[in-house]
Design goal:
By secondary structure, the chain is α/β, with parallel strands linked by helices. The protein has 16 helices and 17 strands. The structure holds pyridoxal-5'-phosphate. Pyridoxal-5'-phosphate binds next to helix 6.
Protein backbone atom coordinates (compact mmCIF):
# COMPACT_ATOMS: atom_id res chain seq x y z
CA UNK A 1 0.00 0.00 0.00
CA UNK A 2 1.12 3.53 -0.67
CA UNK A 3 0.85 4.90 2.87
CA UNK A 4 2.43 8.23 1.92
CA UNK A 5 -0.28 8.80 -0.67
CA UNK A 6 -3.00 7.71 1.77
CA UNK A 7 -1.71 10.28 4.26
CA UNK A 8 -1.27 12.98 1.63
CA UNK A 9 -4.96 12.43 0.80
CA UNK A 10 -5.79 12.94 4.50
CA UNK A 11 -4.42 16.40 5.35
CA UNK A 12 -5.62 16.40 8.98
CA UNK A 13 -3.02 13.77 9.91
CA UNK A 14 -0.46 16.62 9.99
CA UNK A 15 -2.04 18.01 13.17
CA UNK A 16 -4.05 15.08 14.47
CA UNK A 17 -3.71 11.43 15.43
CA UNK A 18 -7.10 10.06 14.57
CA UNK A 19 -7.86 6.74 16.25
CA UNK A 20 -11.63 7.17 16.11
CA UNK A 21 -12.26 5.55 12.76
CA UNK A 22 -14.99 3.37 14.24
CA UNK A 23 -16.76 6.61 15.19
CA UNK A 24 -16.17 8.57 12.01
CA UNK A 25 -12.97 8.23 9.96
CA UNK A 26 -11.25 11.18 8.29
CA UNK A 27 -12.57 11.65 4.77
CA UNK A 28 -9.94 11.52 2.03
CA UNK A 29 -9.47 14.57 -0.22
CA UNK A 30 -11.35 13.16 -3.25
CA UNK A 31 -14.47 12.66 -1.11
CA UNK A 32 -14.27 16.20 0.25
CA UNK A 33 -13.73 17.58 -3.26
CA UNK A 34 -16.67 15.62 -4.67
CA UNK A 35 -19.01 16.92 -2.00
CA UNK A 36 -17.75 20.50 -2.10
CA UNK A 37 -18.05 20.52 -5.88
CA UNK A 38 -21.63 19.38 -5.69
CA UNK A 39 -22.64 21.92 -3.04
CA UNK A 40 -21.15 24.62 -5.24
CA UNK A 41 -23.09 23.25 -8.19
CA UNK A 42 -26.29 23.36 -6.14
CA UNK A 43 -25.51 26.96 -5.19
CA UNK A 44 -25.00 27.98 -8.79
CA UNK A 45 -27.63 25.86 -10.54
CA UNK A 46 -30.28 24.91 -8.01
CA UNK A 47 -30.54 21.66 -6.07
CA UNK A 48 -32.75 19.69 -8.47
CA UNK A 49 -30.90 20.99 -11.51
CA UNK A 50 -27.53 20.03 -9.99
CA UNK A 51 -28.81 16.52 -9.21
CA UNK A 52 -30.06 16.25 -12.80
CA UNK A 53 -26.63 17.10 -14.10
CA UNK A 54 -25.09 14.37 -11.89
CA UNK A 55 -27.64 11.68 -12.75
CA UNK A 56 -25.06 9.28 -14.20
CA UNK A 57 -22.66 9.82 -11.30
CA UNK A 58 -25.51 9.20 -8.84
CA UNK A 59 -26.39 5.97 -10.63
CA UNK A 60 -22.76 4.88 -10.32
CA UNK A 61 -23.02 5.00 -6.52
CA UNK A 62 -25.11 1.81 -6.64
CA UNK A 63 -22.64 0.10 -8.95
CA UNK A 64 -19.70 1.03 -6.71
CA UNK A 65 -21.42 -0.31 -3.57
CA UNK A 66 -22.34 -3.43 -5.53
CA UNK A 67 -18.69 -3.99 -6.44
CA UNK A 68 -17.65 -3.43 -2.82
CA UNK A 69 -19.88 -6.21 -1.47
CA UNK A 70 -20.32 -8.34 -4.63
CA UNK A 71 -23.96 -7.43 -5.20
CA UNK A 72 -25.93 -6.08 -8.15
CA UNK A 73 -26.83 -2.37 -8.28
CA UNK A 74 -30.56 -3.21 -8.11
CA UNK A 75 -29.98 -4.96 -4.77
CA UNK A 76 -28.76 -1.72 -3.14
CA UNK A 77 -30.72 1.04 -1.41
CA UNK A 78 -28.95 4.21 -0.31
CA UNK A 79 -30.40 5.31 3.03
CA UNK A 80 -29.40 8.04 5.46
CA UNK A 81 -27.58 5.83 7.97
CA UNK A 82 -27.01 2.21 8.92
CA UNK A 83 -29.70 2.29 11.60
CA UNK A 84 -32.48 3.35 9.22
CA UNK A 85 -31.18 0.96 6.55
CA UNK A 86 -31.27 -1.88 9.08
CA UNK A 87 -34.71 -0.76 10.34
CA UNK A 88 -36.13 -0.81 6.83
CA UNK A 89 -35.10 -4.44 6.48
CA UNK A 90 -35.97 -5.62 9.97
CA UNK A 91 -39.35 -3.92 10.38
CA UNK A 92 -40.38 -5.09 6.91
CA UNK A 93 -39.98 -8.77 7.82
CA UNK A 94 -43.32 -10.53 8.30
CA UNK A 95 -42.41 -11.81 11.78
CA UNK A 96 -45.19 -13.77 13.49
CA UNK A 97 -45.91 -14.41 17.18
CA UNK A 98 -43.58 -17.13 18.44
CA UNK A 99 -40.97 -16.54 15.71
CA UNK A 100 -37.46 -16.58 17.13
CA UNK A 101 -34.79 -13.99 16.30
CA UNK A 102 -31.25 -15.12 17.08
CA UNK A 103 -28.58 -12.56 17.80
CA UNK A 104 -25.12 -12.33 19.38
CA UNK A 105 -24.11 -10.91 22.74
CA UNK A 106 -22.16 -8.29 20.75
CA UNK A 107 -25.38 -6.84 19.30
CA UNK A 108 -25.65 -3.05 19.03
CA UNK A 109 -28.32 -1.51 21.26
CA UNK A 110 -29.77 0.29 18.24
CA UNK A 111 -30.69 -3.12 16.82
CA UNK A 112 -31.50 -4.88 20.08
CA UNK A 113 -34.14 -2.28 21.03
CA UNK A 114 -36.17 -3.04 17.86
CA UNK A 115 -36.07 -6.77 18.78
CA UNK A 116 -37.60 -5.89 22.15
CA UNK A 117 -40.17 -3.66 20.50
CA UNK A 118 -41.19 -6.48 18.16
CA UNK A 119 -41.24 -8.82 21.14
CA UNK A 120 -43.76 -6.51 22.81
CA UNK A 121 -45.78 -5.69 19.69
CA UNK A 122 -45.79 -8.98 17.79
CA UNK A 123 -44.81 -11.58 20.36
CA UNK A 124 -41.56 -12.63 18.72
CA UNK A 125 -38.85 -14.20 20.91
CA UNK A 126 -35.26 -12.96 21.09
CA UNK A 127 -32.51 -15.46 21.86
CA UNK A 128 -28.84 -14.63 22.31
CA UNK A 129 -26.54 -17.30 20.87
CA UNK A 130 -23.97 -18.45 23.44
CA UNK A 131 -20.32 -17.60 22.84
CA UNK A 132 -17.52 -20.10 22.44
CA UNK A 133 -14.35 -20.04 24.54
CA UNK A 134 -12.92 -17.20 22.39
CA UNK A 135 -15.91 -14.92 22.97
CA UNK A 136 -17.46 -15.22 19.51
CA UNK A 137 -20.71 -16.89 18.46
CA UNK A 138 -20.54 -20.63 19.18
CA UNK A 139 -21.39 -22.48 15.98
CA UNK A 140 -22.52 -25.67 17.78
CA UNK A 141 -24.80 -23.53 20.00
CA UNK A 142 -26.22 -21.85 16.90
CA UNK A 143 -26.80 -25.24 15.25
CA UNK A 144 -28.70 -26.48 18.29
CA UNK A 145 -30.89 -23.36 18.40
CA UNK A 146 -31.67 -23.76 14.69
CA UNK A 147 -32.72 -27.36 15.32
CA UNK A 148 -34.75 -26.72 18.46
CA UNK A 149 -36.38 -23.32 17.99
CA UNK A 150 -38.72 -21.85 15.37
CA UNK A 151 -36.05 -19.48 14.10
CA UNK A 152 -37.16 -16.86 11.55
CA UNK A 153 -34.07 -14.67 11.53
CA UNK A 154 -30.39 -14.57 12.48
CA UNK A 155 -29.28 -10.98 12.92
CA UNK A 156 -25.97 -9.76 14.32
CA UNK A 157 -23.04 -7.39 13.73
CA UNK A 158 -19.90 -8.60 11.94
CA UNK A 159 -17.81 -6.43 14.26
CA UNK A 160 -19.20 -4.89 17.45
CA UNK A 161 -18.93 -1.21 18.15
CA UNK A 162 -16.93 -1.86 21.36
CA UNK A 163 -14.23 -4.16 19.97
CA UNK A 164 -14.62 -7.86 20.39
CA UNK A 165 -14.48 -10.55 17.77
CA UNK A 166 -14.96 -10.57 14.03
CA UNK A 167 -17.85 -13.04 13.99
CA UNK A 168 -17.50 -16.20 11.85
CA UNK A 169 -20.03 -14.81 9.37
CA UNK A 170 -19.44 -17.27 6.53
CA UNK A 171 -20.06 -20.25 8.83
CA UNK A 172 -23.12 -18.52 10.30
CA UNK A 173 -24.39 -17.80 6.78
CA UNK A 174 -23.91 -21.43 5.75
CA UNK A 175 -25.90 -22.61 8.79
CA UNK A 176 -28.64 -20.05 8.07
CA UNK A 177 -28.92 -21.15 4.43
CA UNK A 178 -28.97 -24.83 5.36
CA UNK A 179 -31.78 -24.16 7.83
CA UNK A 180 -33.71 -21.92 5.41
CA UNK A 181 -33.50 -19.01 7.86
CA UNK A 182 -33.05 -15.35 6.89
CA UNK A 183 -29.73 -13.75 7.81
CA UNK A 184 -29.52 -9.97 8.38
CA UNK A 185 -26.00 -8.68 8.81
CA UNK A 186 -24.96 -5.40 10.42
CA UNK A 187 -21.74 -4.62 8.55
CA UNK A 188 -21.47 -1.10 9.92
CA UNK A 189 -17.93 -1.52 11.29
CA UNK A 190 -16.89 -4.03 8.64
CA UNK A 191 -17.39 -2.37 5.24
CA UNK A 192 -14.22 -0.59 4.19
CA UNK A 193 -12.28 -2.41 6.90
CA UNK A 194 -12.39 -6.03 5.68
CA UNK A 195 -13.54 -7.88 2.56
CA UNK A 196 -17.30 -8.35 2.56
CA UNK A 197 -18.83 -10.57 -0.11
CA UNK A 198 -22.55 -11.15 0.35
CA UNK A 199 -22.44 -14.32 -1.75
CA UNK A 200 -19.57 -15.87 0.19
CA UNK A 201 -21.29 -14.91 3.46
CA UNK A 202 -24.71 -16.00 2.32
CA UNK A 203 -26.53 -13.16 4.07
CA UNK A 204 -29.90 -12.08 2.68
CA UNK A 205 -29.74 -8.49 3.92
CA UNK A 206 -26.87 -6.26 5.00
CA UNK A 207 -26.83 -2.73 6.42
CA UNK A 208 -23.82 -0.42 6.60
CA UNK A 209 -22.82 3.17 7.11
CA UNK A 210 -20.69 5.62 5.15
CA UNK A 211 -18.72 7.53 7.78
CA UNK A 212 -16.76 4.78 9.52
CA UNK A 213 -14.21 2.51 7.83
CA UNK A 214 -15.48 3.51 4.39
CA UNK A 215 -14.34 7.09 5.09
CA UNK A 216 -17.40 8.63 3.49
CA UNK A 217 -19.50 11.52 4.80
CA UNK A 218 -21.79 11.45 7.81
CA UNK A 219 -25.53 10.99 7.31
CA UNK A 220 -25.26 8.25 4.67
CA UNK A 221 -25.59 4.49 4.66
CA UNK A 222 -26.89 1.66 2.56
CA UNK A 223 -28.89 -1.53 2.59
CA UNK A 224 -28.37 -4.67 0.52
CA UNK A 225 -31.35 -6.97 -0.04
CA UNK A 226 -30.91 -10.13 -2.10
CA UNK A 227 -32.85 -9.81 -5.35
CA UNK A 228 -35.05 -12.87 -4.83
CA UNK A 229 -36.09 -11.64 -1.37
CA UNK A 230 -36.53 -8.00 -2.35
CA UNK A 231 -39.79 -8.38 -4.24
CA UNK A 232 -41.32 -10.44 -1.43
CA UNK A 233 -40.40 -7.95 1.25
CA UNK A 234 -42.86 -5.11 1.54
CA UNK A 235 -41.20 -2.01 2.99
CA UNK A 236 -42.63 -0.89 6.29
CA UNK A 237 -42.73 2.69 4.93
CA UNK A 238 -43.58 3.76 1.41
CA UNK A 239 -43.43 7.09 -0.37
CA UNK A 240 -43.65 8.30 -3.95
CA UNK A 241 -40.10 7.16 -4.67
CA UNK A 242 -40.53 3.65 -3.26
CA UNK A 243 -43.89 3.28 -4.99
CA UNK A 244 -45.99 5.06 -7.62
CA UNK A 245 -49.68 5.84 -7.69
CA UNK A 246 -51.48 3.95 -10.47
CA UNK A 247 -55.03 5.16 -9.85
CA UNK A 248 -56.71 6.98 -7.00
CA UNK A 249 -56.97 3.59 -5.26
CA UNK A 250 -53.88 1.68 -6.27
CA UNK A 251 -50.12 1.94 -6.15
CA UNK A 252 -47.20 -0.15 -7.33
CA UNK A 253 -44.04 -0.74 -5.30
CA UNK A 254 -40.74 -0.56 -7.17
CA UNK A 255 -39.21 -3.92 -8.00
CA UNK A 256 -35.64 -3.10 -6.95
CA UNK A 257 -34.08 -2.45 -3.55
CA UNK A 258 -34.74 1.26 -3.90
CA UNK A 259 -38.22 0.41 -2.57
CA UNK A 260 -36.50 0.77 0.83
CA UNK A 261 -35.31 4.32 0.09
CA UNK A 262 -37.18 7.58 0.41
CA UNK A 263 -37.16 10.41 -2.07
CA UNK A 264 -35.32 13.30 -0.49
CA UNK A 265 -31.67 12.84 0.24
CA UNK A 266 -28.41 14.67 0.69
CA UNK A 267 -27.14 14.44 -2.87
CA UNK A 268 -23.67 15.77 -2.08
CA UNK A 269 -23.30 13.13 0.63
CA UNK A 270 -24.58 10.39 -1.67
CA UNK A 271 -21.95 11.35 -4.25
CA UNK A 272 -19.42 11.49 -1.41
CA UNK A 273 -20.32 7.94 -0.40
CA UNK A 274 -19.88 6.75 -3.98
CA UNK A 275 -16.49 8.45 -4.15
CA UNK A 276 -15.45 6.92 -0.80
CA UNK A 277 -16.35 3.45 -2.05
CA UNK A 278 -14.37 3.98 -5.27
CA UNK A 279 -11.45 5.27 -3.20
CA UNK A 280 -11.52 2.23 -0.90
CA UNK A 281 -11.71 -0.13 -3.88
CA UNK A 282 -8.76 1.63 -5.52
CA UNK A 283 -6.65 1.10 -2.37
CA UNK A 284 -7.68 -2.56 -2.27
CA UNK A 285 -9.83 -3.82 0.61
CA UNK A 286 -7.65 -6.87 1.26
CA UNK A 287 -4.38 -4.88 1.64
CA UNK A 288 -6.17 -2.37 3.88
CA UNK A 289 -7.53 -5.19 6.06
CA UNK A 290 -4.03 -6.65 6.40
CA UNK A 291 -2.58 -3.28 7.32
CA UNK A 292 -5.34 -2.49 9.81
CA UNK A 293 -4.82 -5.86 11.48
CA UNK A 294 -1.07 -5.32 11.54
CA UNK A 295 -1.43 -1.88 13.17
CA UNK A 296 -4.03 -3.13 15.65
CA UNK A 297 -1.75 -6.06 16.54
CA UNK A 298 1.11 -3.65 17.18
CA UNK A 299 -1.09 -1.41 19.34
CA UNK A 300 -2.34 -4.38 21.37
CA UNK A 301 1.25 -5.51 21.92
CA UNK A 302 2.31 -2.02 23.11
CA UNK A 303 -0.75 -1.70 25.38
CA UNK A 304 -0.10 -5.12 26.88
CA UNK A 305 3.33 -3.88 28.01
CA UNK A 306 1.94 -0.75 29.70
CA UNK A 307 1.52 -0.93 33.48
CA UNK A 308 -2.08 -0.61 34.62
CA UNK A 309 -3.61 -1.34 31.21
CA UNK A 310 -5.87 -4.34 30.52
CA UNK A 311 -6.74 -5.24 26.93
CA UNK A 312 -10.44 -6.00 26.54
CA UNK A 313 -10.77 -7.46 23.05
CA UNK A 314 -12.08 -10.97 22.66
CA UNK A 315 -12.35 -13.35 19.70
CA UNK A 316 -9.97 -15.52 17.73
CA UNK A 317 -10.07 -12.96 14.91
CA UNK A 318 -9.94 -9.33 16.01
CA UNK A 319 -10.36 -6.10 14.05
CA UNK A 320 -8.93 -2.59 13.98
CA UNK A 321 -11.05 -1.69 17.01
CA UNK A 322 -8.79 -1.95 20.06
CA UNK A 323 -10.35 -1.65 23.51
CA UNK A 324 -8.76 -1.42 26.93
CA UNK A 325 -9.25 -0.22 30.48
CA UNK A 326 -6.86 1.38 32.94
CA UNK A 327 -6.75 0.33 36.58
CA UNK A 328 -6.54 3.94 37.77
CA UNK A 329 -7.99 6.28 35.15
CA UNK A 330 -11.49 6.21 33.68
CA UNK A 331 -12.03 6.00 29.90
CA UNK A 332 -13.27 9.60 29.92
CA UNK A 333 -10.06 10.76 31.63
CA UNK A 334 -7.99 8.86 29.08
CA UNK A 335 -9.97 10.35 26.20
CA UNK A 336 -9.53 13.89 27.60
CA UNK A 337 -5.83 13.39 28.35
CA UNK A 338 -5.09 12.16 24.85
CA UNK A 339 -7.15 14.95 23.26
CA UNK A 340 -5.13 17.51 25.26
CA UNK A 341 -1.73 16.37 23.91
CA UNK A 342 0.28 18.80 21.73
CA UNK A 343 -0.71 16.70 18.78
CA UNK A 344 -4.32 15.87 19.58
CA UNK A 345 -5.01 12.14 19.82
CA UNK A 346 -8.61 11.07 19.20
CA UNK A 347 -9.82 7.95 20.97
CA UNK A 348 -13.28 7.47 22.38
CA UNK A 349 -15.18 5.85 25.22
CA UNK A 350 -17.52 2.93 24.54
CA UNK A 351 -20.06 2.51 27.30
CA UNK A 352 -22.47 -0.26 28.25
CA UNK A 353 -25.26 1.76 26.62
CA UNK A 354 -24.19 0.74 23.09
CA UNK A 355 -23.59 -2.96 23.78
CA UNK A 356 -25.32 -3.77 27.06
CA UNK A 357 -25.29 -7.57 26.77
CA UNK A 358 -21.61 -7.86 25.97
CA UNK A 359 -20.52 -5.33 28.59
CA UNK A 360 -22.68 -6.96 31.29
CA UNK A 361 -21.33 -10.35 30.31
CA UNK A 362 -17.78 -9.12 30.75
CA UNK A 363 -18.51 -7.05 33.87
CA UNK A 364 -17.59 -3.74 32.21
CA UNK A 365 -19.27 -0.32 32.23
CA UNK A 366 -16.96 1.38 29.78
CA UNK A 367 -13.80 0.82 27.75
CA UNK A 368 -11.37 3.10 25.94
CA UNK A 369 -11.60 2.52 22.20
CA UNK A 370 -8.79 3.23 19.73
CA UNK A 371 -9.91 2.30 16.23
CA UNK A 372 -7.20 2.24 13.59
CA UNK A 373 -7.34 2.69 9.85
CA UNK A 374 -4.85 2.00 7.10
CA UNK A 375 -3.72 5.65 7.02
CA UNK A 376 -2.54 5.42 10.64
CA UNK A 377 1.09 4.57 11.40
CA UNK A 378 3.27 2.83 13.99
CA UNK A 379 4.77 6.24 14.86
CA UNK A 380 1.30 7.52 15.77
CA UNK A 381 0.80 4.45 17.95
CA UNK A 382 4.17 5.08 19.67
CA UNK A 383 3.06 8.68 20.36
CA UNK A 384 -0.15 7.48 21.96
CA UNK A 385 1.66 4.90 24.06
CA UNK A 386 4.12 7.56 25.30
CA UNK A 387 1.18 9.81 26.19
CA UNK A 388 -0.53 6.96 28.06
CA UNK A 389 2.71 6.26 29.89
CA UNK A 390 2.59 9.83 31.19
CA UNK A 391 -1.06 9.59 32.25
CA UNK A 392 -1.40 11.60 35.49
CA UNK A 393 -2.69 9.84 38.57
CA UNK A 394 -6.00 11.19 39.80
C1 LIG B 1 -22.11 -2.16 15.05
C2 LIG B 1 -22.89 -0.92 14.71
N1 LIG B 1 -24.10 -1.04 14.16
C3 LIG B 1 -24.84 0.03 13.82
C4 LIG B 1 -24.39 1.31 14.07
C5 LIG B 1 -25.26 2.46 13.69
O1 LIG B 1 -24.80 3.13 12.55
P1 LIG B 1 -25.40 4.56 12.16
O2 LIG B 1 -24.99 5.49 13.25
O3 LIG B 1 -24.83 4.89 10.82
O4 LIG B 1 -26.87 4.42 12.12
C6 LIG B 1 -23.14 1.49 14.66
C7 LIG B 1 -22.65 2.85 14.96
O5 LIG B 1 -21.76 3.06 15.74
C8 LIG B 1 -22.36 0.34 14.97
O6 LIG B 1 -21.15 0.46 15.53
Amino acid sequence: MNIEQLRADTPAVAQLIHFNNAGAALMPAPVIETMTRHIQLEASLGGYEAAGQCAAELENVYGAIGRLINAQPDEIAVIENATRAWDMAFYSLPLQPGDVVLTSSTEYAGNYIPYLQMQQQRGIKVRVIANDEHGQVSLPALKTLLEEERVALISLPVIATNGGPVQPIEQIGALARAAGVLFLLDACQAVGQMPIDVHKIGCHMLAATSRKYLRGPRGMGFLYVERSLCQNLEPVFLDLHAASLQTSNTYMIRADARRFENWECNVAAKLGLGCAVEYALAQGIEPMWLRIQHLAGYLRQCLADLAGVTLRDTGSLTSGIVTFTHQRNSATQIQQWLAAQDKRINVTTSTFRSTLLDMQHRGLREVSRASLHAYNTETEIDTMIAALDGLPSV
